[in-house]
Design brief:
- By secondary structure, the protein is an alpha/beta fold.
- About 30% of the residues lie in helices and about 20% in strands.
- The chain has helices at about 5-10, 30-40, 65-80, 100-105, 110-115, 140-145, 170-175, 180-190, 195-210, 235-250, 280, 320-325, 330-340, 355-365, 390-400, and strands at about 15-20, 55-60, 85-90, 125-130, 135-140, 150-155, 210-220, 225-230, 260-265, 295-300, 320, 350, 375-380, 385-390, 405.
- The protein has an eight-stranded mixed beta sheet with strand order 12-11-10-9-13-14-1-15. A five-stranded mixed beta sheet has the order 3-2-6-7-8, with helices on both faces. Strands 4-5 form a two-stranded antiparallel ribbon.
- Helix 2 packs across helix 3 and helix 7 packs across helix 9.
- It starts with a helix and ends in a 16-residue tail after the last strand.
């Protein structure tokens, strides 16, 4: 037994049980039908000319049903005589390379073969306008050369700033279509200016390019599509703030507001731009956003396969496993941090050889906590928290709380021979 193991060996691990959280779960049953009905109702066919080339945006987030949404739009445009193609609209994600961004889309099932339209990936961004105060407006080169653009994105709270427009269509036009060049410039001004930049640059794109329509998606607390809004260019800046409020109201939350220790099984860009969503964990990388939950210490156990080594968010944890370190790619992680000017998300926490040691270390370092009654929560990731593991101290606190079910008797954490959770 090494020195680290000797120090942590006396730290006992709490017993606990799975807890089901019951959130509102209305969903859109027929997503293609909802999209087509919105397109027909809005008269968007009038803006389609035979043979016109139409760019459709596709982002890097794990948006529910994104491939289905894009394929529906591709099919509708082709039936109207247009020639649609897909562009990765994800700023510096995918290692800030065209191939990396195309691979991210392929992970979501978005390829030429599956969508019936080519994927044109490039990191080249054109300067299409300069605002009166000198703020440049950049746009993906392929999208800029198109006859029209369709903007598709999920609308939800951002992880680093607050405003009328956070993660959504306006940000997609500003940061996503701005590629690394645009994302780098807007982030260089700091997140304190991001809400203003997203609003003004988004409007400039609407004024300078032929945006045919936008599709704003809202998800419920279970990562399911619960609203599909087909919006005209003029409706995007008006309706998006309302959709953002709805998205915030539907966000899931943890059953308590403060934990001694939060254990996150897996982080990754497919769960959040920050790897683990600060709106859930409270680990905000800037002072321009905040939430209700906080944890004394956080342990992260793994990176998702879909994140391709992008360990953004690991730096907001206190403890992690060697598994995280071995999967962590500087080439994939650092472009994001360098572009957004948030080095904290790309730092490495303390590394331990097993899940057990990482969790024990987090408990030991939770200053002021009662180790005999440790308030510990364990979640699979920040996108799916309908079921969480709660220690006995948490179970006592949430007993009788409406909308919460305890799914069994408290049991000890189970580990394999290597100290990793079963």
């Amino acid at each position: 037994m090494g020195v680290i193991e000797q120090i942590l060996e006396p730290v006992s691990l709490p017993r606990g049980a799975l807890v089901r959280q019951n959130f509102a779960r209305d969903v859109v049953e027929d997503i293609p039908g909802e999209i087509i009905a919105g397109l027909e109702r809005g008269g968007f066919e009038a803006g389609i000319r035979p043979g016109m080339r139409v760019a459709i945006t596709a982002g890097s987030r794990g948006v529910a049903n994104v491939a289905l949404v894009i394929k529906t739009v591709v099919s509708w445009l082709k039936k109207k005589g247009a020639q649609p193609f897909i562009v990765p609209a994800m700023g510096s994600h995918g290692g800030a390379t065209a191939d990396g961004q195309a691979r991210l889309l392929a992970d979501y099932g978005i390829t030429q073969d599956t969508m019936g339209a080519p994927v044109l990936a490039s990191m080249e961004a054109d300067l299409i306008a300069v605002l009166p105060d000198g703020l440049p407006v950049y746009l993906d080169h392929h999208a800029n050369g198109a006859d029209g653009i369709v903007v598709i994105n999920r609308i939800k709270p951002h992880t680093a700033f607050r405003g009328d427009y956070e993660s959504g269509l306006m940000k997609m036009m500003t940061i996503g279509l701005g590629k690394q060049r645009g994302a780098n410039f807007y982030h260089a001004k700091g997140f304190g200016h991001m809400a203003d930049h997203v609003a003004r640059v988004g409007r400039a794109v609407l004024e300078n390019k032929n945006i045919l329509f936008g599709i704003g998606l809202v998800e419920n607390a279970y990562d399911e599509t619960c609203r599909v809004a087909v919006l005209s260019p003029g409706d995007i800046p008006v309706e998006e703030p309302r959709l953002l409020l709805e998205a915030k109201a539907r966000m899931p939350h943890l059953p308590i507001r403060h934990a001694d220790v939060l254990v996150v099984d897996t982080i990754g860009k497919n769960f959040s731009g920050d790897g683990m969503d600060p709106n859930i964990t409270g680990t905000f990388p800037t002072p321009y956003a905040s939430g209700e939950f906080s944890a004394n210490k956080i342990a992260v156990l793994d990176l998702s396969d879909e994140t391709h080594g992008n360990g953004s968010g690991a730096g907001m944890a206190d403890c992690a496993t060697r598994r995280v370190l071995e999967k962590f790619s500087f080439e994939q992680t650092y472009p994001n941090a360098l572009t957004s000017n948030t080095p904290c998300v790309a730092r490495l926490p303390m590394i331990f050889d097993s899940d057990r040691l990482a969790i024990q270390a987090a408990i030991k370092m939770a200053a002021g906590a009662d180790r005999q009654h440790i308030r510990l929560l364990r979640i699979p990731n920040t996108l799916h928290i309908g079921q969480v593991w709660a220690s006995e101290a948490v179970l006592e606190e949430i007993a009788g709380k409406p909308g919460i079910e305890v799914l069994g008797e408290p049991q000890a954490m189970a580990f394999d021979e290597n100290g990793n959770l079963l």
